[in-house]
Amino acid sequence: MTTVSDRAAETLTVLRPDVREAAENADAAVLRPEDQTQLGQADRARIALRVALVNESPSYADSVAVTLDDAEVVRDVERWGELPEPTQALLAHCEQVALDPADVGADEIAELREHFSPAQVVTATQVAAYASFRVRLESWLRLVAGAGDGPASQAGITIEAGAAADGFALSTPDQAFPSMRWVSRVVSGGDFAETLRLDAAVLSAQTLLREAIMTGHGALDRADRELAALATSLINGCGYCTAVHGKRQVELSGDPLTAVVLAEAGPAAIADERLRAVVDVAGALTCTPAALTAADVRRLHAAGLDADDVHDLVAVSSMFAWDNRLIMTLGNAVRP
Length: 336
Fold this sequence. Notes:
CATH class of the largest domain: Mainly Alpha
Structural class: mainly alpha
Strand content: under 5%
Mean pLDDT: 93
Number of strands: 2
CATH architecture of the largest domain: Up-down Bundle
GO molecular function: peroxiredoxin activity
Low-confidence stretches: 157-165
Helix content: 55-70%
Strand order of the largest sheet: 1-2
Number of helices: 17
Distance between the termini: 56 Å
Protein name: Carboxymuconolactone decarboxylase-like domain-containing protein
CATH topology of the largest domain: AhpD-like
Radius of gyration: 19 Å
Oligomer: single chain
Order of helices and strands: HHHHHHHHHEHHHHHHHHE
């Protein structure tokens, strides 16, 4: 009999081998590590279950629930009173990370610190952010495989912009994407790497996966991958990733306009049909739950992206569902 785990493994076979291997290693590092002293496997599964539920992904929810004796309690918020207070706090934090990382600030991290160590906070947040990545990757690769023939979608999600495109004086790339400094809410005076090193095994697996997705030899042009990362980060509200990947898109593409237009005037101002489709689909994947449809996939094909291009695009937007959530919740970005 084919299990949920078997179906998930089959779904990932369409990814590039380097991305697939890195994704499988990350899954083990996050959900089934050898060292579980910081956070037990049951708590990891509880977090992943809540993330799956808010993303309306029953298949992923079922795959992580099978290891839990209290899965029905975790599924039903009305029954959370049956759980220990620290577990309730953990689930509430991780659910908010999954739903909208912009709503998790210093006060929320301080409340979680009443029950958990800095290392435990980092690990729990990594689990929630990773599950946000994984649920998108699996769900939407299956959608891509089954898109079939039919009409293509048109205009997609809107990224909130400060002004209309017409008659608006755009910034230069350096102005639109300034250098940013990240300040940890978990480690006093710590930077991003120092904070994430509190769970070094996950940091290593995550870094290898990001590198495979963003810089590996793939079908989708690297500048387009950066554009998808920028679109995802803009919708999530991650100023740090917006600055980094907006600047990188400009450098890789040699185009000083598209990334700035996206950031300051929104996707409707992007004239190129292919780039607009990339931005819109990345945006649809960013929502919680994601709003991608088969018609969106067909739109990508109509704009000239083949199946491998689309798989790369799904991987990029899913990856930044993970990265944005860490950067926005474990600290905040400021200008130097």
